[in-house]
Amino acid sequence: MGTNIVIRRTSNKTNFKFWEDVYTTLIPSKTNLNLVWRDYTIESGVWYKYSVVKRNKENYRSTPIEIKNPIMG
Questions:
Q1: What domains lie within the chain, and their CATH numbers?
Q2: What pLDDT score was predicted for residue 33?
Q3: Taking the CA atoms of the chain, what radius of gyration do you get in angstroms?
Q4: Coil, helix or strand for 12?
């Protein structure tokens, strides 16, 4: 068993109000997290914020950890 990690994003196109899941991966139990992920689906000129949550088998999510300032690719 392990833990599902979900990376989510929002953008200035929705005034940072709508979050979408953009990546999910299963981290095996007793494994150190060393995840490098790149978003190749961004749009030029759009500001984004990202967050990460843990999701359990019942689909409940933890409190998100969110970047404070928007970034642009």
A1: 2-72 (2.60.40)
A2: 81
A3: 13
A4: helix
Average pLDDT of the segment spanning 30-44:
90
Q: CA-based angle 11:17:20, to the nearest 5?
A: 65
The beta strands (E) that lie in the chain are given as: 2-11, 20-28, 47-55, 65-66, 71-72
* Residue 40 contacts residue 64 (beta carbons within 8 Å): no
How far is Cα 43 from Cα 33, in angstroms, rounded to an integer? 28
Is the confidence at residue 30, as pLDDT, over 90? no
Total-model pTM: 0.88
